[in-house]
Predict the structure of Flavin-dependent thymidylate synthase.
Amino acid sequence: MALTAEQQDEIAAARAAEGRTRRPTVAALEALLFEAMPVLDHGFVRVVDYMGDDAAIVQAARVSYGRGTRAANEDRGLIRYLMRHRHSTPFEMCEIKYHVKLPIFVARQWIRHRTANVNEYSARYSILDREFYIPAPEHLAAQSAVNRQGRGDILDGPEAARVLDLLREDAARNYDHYLEMLNEEEDGTPRDPSRQGLARELARMNLTLNAYTQWYWKTDLHNLLHFLSLRADAHAQYEIRAYAEAMMETVRAWVPMAFEAFRDYRLGAVTLSAQMMGIVKRMLAGEPVAQEGSGLSRREWRELMEMLGRDAG
Amino acid sequence: MALTAEQQDEIAAARAAEGRTRRPTVAALEALLFEAMPVLDHGFVRVVDYMGDDAAIVQAARVSYGRGTRAANEDRGLIRYLMRHRHSTPFEMCEIKYHVKLPIFVARQWIRHRTANVNEYSARYSILDREFYIPAPEHLAAQSAVNRQGRGDILDGPEAARVLDLLREDAARNYDHYLEMLNEEEDGTPRDPSRQGLARELARMNLTLNAYTQWYWKTDLHNLLHFLSLRADAHAQYEIRAYAEAMMETVRAWVPMAFEAFRDYRLGAVTLSAQMMGIVKRMLAGEPVAQEGSGLSRREWRELMEMLGRDAG
Amino acid sequence: MALTAEQQDEIAAARAAEGRTRRPTVAALEALLFEAMPVLDHGFVRVVDYMGDDAAIVQAARVSYGRGTRAANEDRGLIRYLMRHRHSTPFEMCEIKYHVKLPIFVARQWIRHRTANVNEYSARYSILDREFYIPAPEHLAAQSAVNRQGRGDILDGPEAARVLDLLREDAARNYDHYLEMLNEEEDGTPRDPSRQGLARELARMNLTLNAYTQWYWKTDLHNLLHFLSLRADAHAQYEIRAYAEAMMETVRAWVPMAFEAFRDYRLGAVTLSAQMMGIVKRMLAGEPVAQEGSGLSRREWRELMEMLGRDAG
Amino acid sequence: MALTAEQQDEIAAARAAEGRTRRPTVAALEALLFEAMPVLDHGFVRVVDYMGDDAAIVQAARVSYGRGTRAANEDRGLIRYLMRHRHSTPFEMCEIKYHVKLPIFVARQWIRHRTANVNEYSARYSILDREFYIPAPEHLAAQSAVNRQGRGDILDGPEAARVLDLLREDAARNYDHYLEMLNEEEDGTPRDPSRQGLARELARMNLTLNAYTQWYWKTDLHNLLHFLSLRADAHAQYEIRAYAEAMMETVRAWVPMAFEAFRDYRLGAVTLSAQMMGIVKRMLAGEPVAQEGSGLSRREWRELMEMLGRDAG
């Protein structure tokens, strides 16, 4: 991540401006506010605004006139109860807004989460930065042999070198040709006065999917936690998980009680089907069980044994 | 509206608590924060939180690192441009949360606006207040003779008196029977120890639709303006319009530039079909025009002449 | 449920009309189409249109040019995999539309599910039917002593009789006064020509929450299953559960593979937190465990033991 | 557009299968069903399912037991009234599902419309086709000099030739390197057994934004019309407009009354602010008017004069 001096100044100015408010404030999140947390090689996530705190969840659940909070352990108990029993509306009462810089192929996964507000930097109006995501060597993975959508071993040696060369060269060449077609420099300065330059909305099509874009993304806490439960998961693609993990830190700072409940009842939780639960009960009763005759497919049996920390047999 | 002493204390305490924040603040809205603005006979609207301001609209439209604002007249011009051309996403970057007390039949209209977050006071858990909406005499209108969903003349004399008596008596009797079935007082004190009391989730069905409920309602500025454009309109039912008008004042305090643009390009605006525009052009060219042969139905012709401030002929 | 002869004729005519289509059809659902399935004392649910079938889920998951289906057991395996791993978008490719007649207090719970399309019968334009929900004696439950939102014992004897009398009398009286204020009969015939009649949008406020309304409600299969998982659950209020159960039958007829997967992985499933799973593993390893020292609250411990079919100790 | 023989067979088989249904059917849309309508150089739109028709709009607006329709001209009048007064919910009762093949940069604009269901072909699992959008010479426009997001003159001569060469070569080279990194052929055949091949979820980042993707996209008629009003507009980028125009034909076939109303009251309509309307009235009264003193900015004045077909003076 390389912020320009001008961008750094803008961020510093925003951080320096402080005012008084009657709204709830969260000191731990104020401390992070506007700061760019680096993600991948040129990306970042930064919180640019927020609304509400742990108490706002309790306040809405109780539809109260004041803050609606009671003893801290009662509030904590209520928040854990709401999370455990999937009462989603009180968590919708908190809202957060991020500024994110991210590769286009990550943006395409991210945007599938529809319950959010988005303003993306427009390549119809503006010129994109000369920045592309190139995986670090330890993330250069082969296709998984067992999982059609997963990664396998890390590539190394000449194969890794060749991949990195191709990614770097193709992204750079395509970007150079993008500017050439625009007949502009990266900062918008015109080049050859004898040419008109291709429309920006057309020239952008020559860019690669690892080019960086950026957006303002705003959502409520319930939908954010849903996003994080999918994207901070081990099955998510590493590149989007890196963003989710940075955002987890902002949630921990913002709403510590809700975050703890989320970690316990969502992130770390497992769901067992009726049939799976029946097998667990039989195991607890000391009965021998095996995949055959269990009513579970081989795949489900493997999933269950994994959850129980047992050998699939 | 009669807030209890305890509720007033809670509100006063919330207003008195002030903290420091790096987030944008809006002094005119801070001044209103938490205060209950009376609506109808027992209802209110009060702002309980907000996020963003006029500058946040500009900031998102420009996807900037800092506040993103420039000279005030440039910002104003951009906001007006965005409103005029129905660019909705920058307005979604501002969020507001209200606490509203309102009759159930109004709540049923309101909830049709789906793009919002709601936590309603639950009559499955709790006992509703002994408060019912009774129209003021000047709002006691007859059915319109010309418009199937509108109001006509104001009722008066014995007919008005009879209506008010019925509304008052029925609501009060049904509420008394609600408590009797619950075997509880309004404050939850048990009554006759020899009876169990009907479940709250069942007893509530005896209440009338003018009983008051309350909720926390949170939405973004774009969706709020859409709500207001429909509900502050002269064709909206008076009772929901009363809420919309109170909320208009909060928007004016919160985002004055966006509010002004909304007033000019939405509230006061008219939409002309291609055929209507053709007729306006012919009128401007001095041609005589009449409904017959205009391609407009009689109803559309009347609507057009009304917009032009002319006699429908 | 009492459909008028005219309504029955309209339904019969709709059922009799048959056409040819290239779209997928589901014979078991066609057999139910337009039929009113009775719910509660005067309500019903009827399917009025649908789009897609089990194969449409598979087709979308594979983004195929044709039907996209393979051997039935491969399709079934894919649908079960998608359900188990909460891949929601393929289930969104099926859509269904219901016509529902339901008490207003049930409609108010139902409408909280925002991801649906709704057209409700308007009491601003029209007169509601003279029908109110009165619980059958076996559903006349007392407030639960242990669960603030649940039901306890069934009321009987004079207390039950009194409740039923109050519900019946209040609803009927308020309806009679509603017509009196309207100065109309139930069928819209004017009454006393010397009076104007109160506007319909006002008079409706005198009705009780057990009056019946009706609406067209349309949603996709993913959101329908989410609705059913909450509303067909034992913790849902009986009156809305009755609707959910009728709708379950329509889903079973429509998409039998998706329904079976839903039943196994959602309805019958349980979710265990990380801490709960740790305790299950310790139990399986033969360790003695107790609430104290388990890291679970008393309430969570009780929930876990219940899931395992054990005494909470 | 080049469908493979296998794809053509799948489509032909789907078209040949016909069944009986009690649901409303639309012959003109059935005739189009499953057929791929070509868009751009390799893209297409095809309708793969639909639900409802013009009568379904009327039926929902009237909440009827049968088809709910009356005389055709009454239905037409009601649909036009609903469209003119922006009653959106009855139009939500119709649903349509498309299969679309489109360049990634177009998909990125399209996906901003959030109220739809989408299943996209996954480049984490599968290999994308070797197809890229290359603009036809008549669409190779320069950046507009007056409008920051528009197109200006058509490029020609050596500048056009150079642009086309760059677009073609870069897309092809990057695709070749994509396969090389995957160590696979376009059809998934492995290449060099001594190499592992980069994970598909990573290799895709080397593709250009004019590569084609495909998805199933399903939405209701109200949201579809909103999409079309923005994307079939002259200000929309040509490449997405080409899709919108093909979809317009499907809407015309499907719901001809709603389509006609949409064309009259949305597509061809103009919205005038209160200030603009004031000026029109003054013009009709014969008063001279000029931008100066009109209360309109120069930009708004120009927009108004354009709508009135006058010289901006």
User: Anything to note?
Assistant: The two ends of chain B are 48 Å apart (CA to CA). DSSP finds twelve helices and nine strands in chain B. The first strand of chain B starts at residue 19 and ends at 21.
